[in-house]
Amino acid sequence: MQIIRHPAEMTAWAKEQAKAGHRIGLVPTMGFFHEGHLSLMRRAGQLADFVAVSLFVNPTQFGPQEDLAAYPRNFERDCAMVEAAGVSVLFAPIAAEMYPAGFSTTVAVGAELTGQLCGASRPGHFAGVATVVCKLFNIVQPDVAVFGQKDFQQLAVIRRMTADLNLGVEIVAHPIVREADGLAMSSRNTYLLPQQRESALSLSRALALARTIAAEGERSTERLTTVLRDFIHSFPETEVDYISFVHQDTLQQVAEIDEKTVIALAVKIGGRVRLIDNGLVL
Ligand code: PAF
Q: Where does (R)-pantoate bind (predicted)?
């Protein structure tokens, strides 16, 4: 496996592959890998001849009060894991090369997709994500890029940007990978104190509860939201950021659930660990 640090070197590698007629699959990440990331890499391997993984903790998608400095990092361990996963290139640039002096361009997807859910709680987050993913697509020049469905709004934003800017990259969504007890895998799970682990299960259990109640015939998202809020708050140290029922493609809120309704949740545990989860209700 090659480790590439410089964008120009990464693009030179990509051009060589394209010349040889090889398909490149990209998995954009911020590192601190877990089984969820590895499953994205395996999926990319099925769709392309060579897999490139980018590892870049992108400063522009973190707000001033967020966890950029504390974000978990372990480069040695990450290298060993991607190598074992059969990845061809690990692209790990430094911030000064991604955002050199004078950098002043932002890719901003419209508020219909970015103004609600995580976009409402994290102003500027999706502009940071869209900008860095657009840059990564230009640098790595992938044929296909694989993203996890846990970041469901991110996926919608990236699909929109890719279509609107004719980036010519196939966007593939990969299902959420969960721990045995249902917790969606996330690098941020490492922030949880042992006694908060049970409270983190409030998200996946709330999804299950919503499905059970919907299967019994409930369609009102207002009534479901009330039940789910009380349910989540029955776990210690939980604070609901949002419980939203939205259309799977447009992300617009719905009053009544149907087959295309996704329930999206964000919950803060212990006042500092913000976790998200989502899934179709029916
Ligand atoms: O999902 C992530 O890890 C990040 O938002 C991404 C897509 C790598 C952009 O920094």
A: 61, 154
Give the model's confidence band at 151: pLDDT under 50 very low, under 70 low, under 90 confident, else very high. Answer: very high
| Cβ 29 under 6 angstroms from ligand 1 | yes
pTM of the prediction? Answer: 0.97
Q: Determine the topology of domain 2-174 in CATH.
A: Rossmann fold (3.40.50)
Ligand 1 mean position, distance from CA 129 (Å): 6
Q: Is 161 in the pocket of ligand 1 (CB under 6 A)?
A: no
Regarding the domain with residue range 187-275, which homologous superfamily does it belong to in the CATH classification? Answer: Pantoate-beta-alanine ligase, C-terminal domain (3.30.1300.10)
Known catalytic residue at 37: yes
Report, as an integer, the average pLDDT of 134-158: 98
CA dihedral 153, 157, 160, 162 (to 10 degrees): -130
Q: CA 239 to CA 270: how far, in whole Å?
A: 8
Q: Is the CB of 51 under 6 A from ligand 1?
A: no
